[in-house]
Amino acid sequence: MNLKDCYIKFGGDFDEVLGRLRREQIVQKFMYKFLDDKSFHLFEASVENKDYEEALRAVHTLKGICQNLSFTRLFESSSLVTNALKENDWDKAIDMIPKLSKDYYETINVIKDFKNSREE
Amino acid sequence: MDKQKILIVDDSEMNRALLVDILEEHYDVVEAENGVEAISLLSKQRADFSLLLLDIMMPEMDGFEVLAYINKYHWNDTFAVIMISADDTPANIKRAYDLGAFDYISRPFDSTIVQRRISNTMFLYARQQRLEKIIAEQFHEQEKNSKLMISILSHIVEFRNGESGLHILHVNTITKYLLKQLVQLTDQYPLSKADISLISTASALHDIGKISISDAILNKPSRLTAEEFEVIKTHSVIGANMLLDLSIEQRENPLIKVASEICRWHHERYDGNGYPDGLKGEEIPIAAQVVALADVYDALTSERCYKKAYSHEEALKMILEGQCGAFNPSLLLCLQEIADTLEDELMAASQEQEAKNIQDIRNKIDYDRLFSCKKYTALSRKQQQLHLLYIDSLTSIYNRRYYDEHFQGTDDIQAMAVIDVDDFKYINDNYGHDVGDIILQSIAQTVLSCVRKTDAVIRYGGDEFVIIFFSMPQEIFEKKLERIRHSVDSLIIDGHPELHMSVSIGGAYGSGTAEKLFKVADTMMYQSKKAKNQVTISFLDEMVGSADSI
Fold first, then answer.
1. Using only C-alpha atoms, what is the Rg of chain B?
2. How many A-B residue pairs are in contact by the CB < 8 A criterion?
């Protein structure tokens, strides 16, 4: 599996990200870095604590990162949650959390598999 | 050259890292993870940064708050702020620009675009700062020139008055302070900074009409008769007409317009009891009102041929009591407000120059002080100005301008000497101009050390000096010139002990105008030149214009 296959698998746009960041190496570096990003977990914890302000900031950050890395699918689901929270529509946001969660873990798992296959 | 420094403010480590990656090749990048951190960093070392990349949505203090803070304290005068966010709704972008952001970069980042945007911004900012600096310098240069013009004008106009020469400078200062105070006090007169500067500059011309008033009346020490006073009064209209006689184009110039208002109406009074037109209240243009008050205030606090100087307190009291006519009540309030400032400002000028006339100004440029660079730095602004105008930069004695402005046409000079350095061209040709310069300096100092403080030593041209003597007995004059010749003859030049210098001196003793004395002394100098190292004097008052060679 190469980097492009990996992107296809989690619903990203590899050509777009490469066009912006120029080098595969950079794309890969930041894709790996995404594994350590805490935005999603901060979001989950904030929702748990009903701290919607913090939750909005966290999911907004997640959205920004996905946008920069062209993680299109995850970008879309995080955008929907961000917008719902911005409109103070808590219920709608909470309804969309399972989808966001599913997309997030799918993405993470694909990246992890890719990383493992590379390191073997 | 050091890399330019960029501060990235973003709460997402990922996003910062991405920007660092894009930028670190060309820039020195510093990171802050929220607004508070950014502000504290900038408050300590903002001069280090050329650019700030600022995210909008952040904990603690968001991007807009940071931007507002930066804008409030004008920190973005020295660095550009570029906002970054995915949240690029038109409202957010507009708000960022309104708060002083220079530009806006939206996510997702394209490395080429980010690099280009940033380098272009840096370039524009640097160029803008450079241009601002150039304009500031030009502005100061112009201001310096206009001050020089005022200073020259003050000498020309006041010269005939035998007044302090400082009057015009004082009126200028008082006018400026009064106007500044006036616009703070009331919105009634919408004057910009430029207007204030214009009126202050134009105030220098308020008395130009006095040029046409005869000396006998202008400098009469006793009380003027009614007829004489009527003559004096014409100076206001005459001054205005002088300006209105200029070409149409020049008359349209704001400075001339304001100046002619000031000339004509600076003796009007608020109650209509002034002259020439008896204008009342706000019929009198504000420029003329202010100059009228400034004129009176300085006249009171200065000594004149017909009166002593009043103290600042006395002057203020007299004006407020209406002893000098009625003034705009708002201006009187302003005068009271600025009284302390004025006293300090005008006293400073007066202490530097208790000079009551041009001759005193001459004496105030203390030779001993001028020769020592260290002491020179202690000279006041005012003295430095005079210094620039009238002192030869090489030899530190008076220059030709000083001679031309102060002695042409004077007839109270007792004697004059013209001194020419012998074989100076030989020195320049064989030793170089730097040695020539040292020699001129040494000779100037030597000559200076031989004369009294009240005599004026002038560098008239390249290697030609002129000395002007006031009230000096004939035999002393002869001895002086001989002493100068001898002193130069025995002068040892610094660094060139092998050189021997001499001067040829021509003297003219007797009454006559400066021009006449100069002509005679110059002729005598050429006689001395035949043999060199000689003094030749002509005594004009003797029936036979004998040339006495020593």
1. 33
2. 56
Length of chain A: 120
Q: How far apart are the first and last CA of chain A?
A: 13
Strands B80-85 and B464-469: unpaired
Residue A62, number of CB atoms within 10 A of its CB? 29
**Is B391-549 in CATH node 3.30.70.270?**
yes
Identify whether the C-beta of residue B83 lies closer than 8 Å to the C-beta of residue B67.
yes
Digit-coded pLDDT (tens) for B227-266: 999 999 999 999 999 889 988 888 888 888 999 999 999 9
* DSSP bridge pairs for B105: B84
Of B12, B57, B108, the CB nearest to A20: B108
Q: Which of chain B's residues have a Cβ under 8 Å away from the Cβ of A21?
A: 18, 109, 111
Q: Where are the domains of chain B?
A: 5-133, 162-352, 391-549
Which helix (H) or strand (E) is B256 found in, with range? helix B254-265
* Predicted pLDDT of residue B54: 93
Find out whether B402 and B370 touch, Cβ atoms under 8 Å: no
Which band of pLDDT confidence, cut at 50, 70 and 90, is reported for residue B372? Answer: very low
Measured distance CA(A63)–CA(A69) in Å, rounded: 10
Residues of A in contact with B54 (CB under 8 A): none
Nearest CA in chain A to B112: A20
Q: A20, B17: Cβ pair inside 8 Å? A: no
Is residue B106 within 8 A of residue B61, CB to CB? The reply is: no
In our burial notation (b when 16+ CB lie closer than 10 A, e otherwise), range B265-301 reads bbbbbbeeebbbeebeeeebbbbbbbbbbbbbbbbbb
What are the residues of chain B with a beta carbon less than 8 Å away from any beta carbon of chain A?
A: 11-15, 17-18, 21, 57-59, 85-87, 107-112
Q: What is the pLDDT, as a whole number, of residue B448?
A: 86
As a dihedral over the C-alpha atoms of residue A86, residue A87, residue A91, residue A96, rounded to 10 degrees, the angle is -60
* Average pLDDT over chain B, rounded to an integer: 84
Mutate one of B8, B10, B11, B18 to test the A interface: name it (highest A CB count within 10 A): B18
- CATH code at B162-352: 1.10.3210.10
Cα distances (Å, whole numbers) of residue B40 to B30, B33, B44, B236, B467? 13, 12, 7, 61, 66
Contact B114, B23 (CB under 8 A): yes
Residue B450 identity (one-letter amino acid) = C
pLDDT digits (tens, 9 = 90+) for B70-105: 888 888 888 889 998 766 678 888 888 899 898 888
Taking only the tens place, the pLDDT of each residue in B425-484 is: 998 888 888 899 999 999 998 898 887 766 789 999 889 999 998 777 788 788 889 989
Question: Cα(A93)–Cα(A83) distance, rounded to whole angstroms?
Answer: 8
Collect all residues with Cβ–Cβ distance below 8 Å to B469 and sequence separation of at least 6.
B413, B414, B415, B416, B417, B451, B452, B455, B477, B480
> 3-state class of B248 per DSSP?
helix
> What are the tokens at B344?
């300090």
Name chain B contacts of A34, Cβ cutoff 8 Å.
14
Alpha carbons B169 and B149: distance in angstroms, whole number: 11
CATH H-level superfamily of A3-113? HPT domain (1.20.120.160)
**B5-133: which CATH architecture?**
3-Layer(aba) Sandwich (3.40)
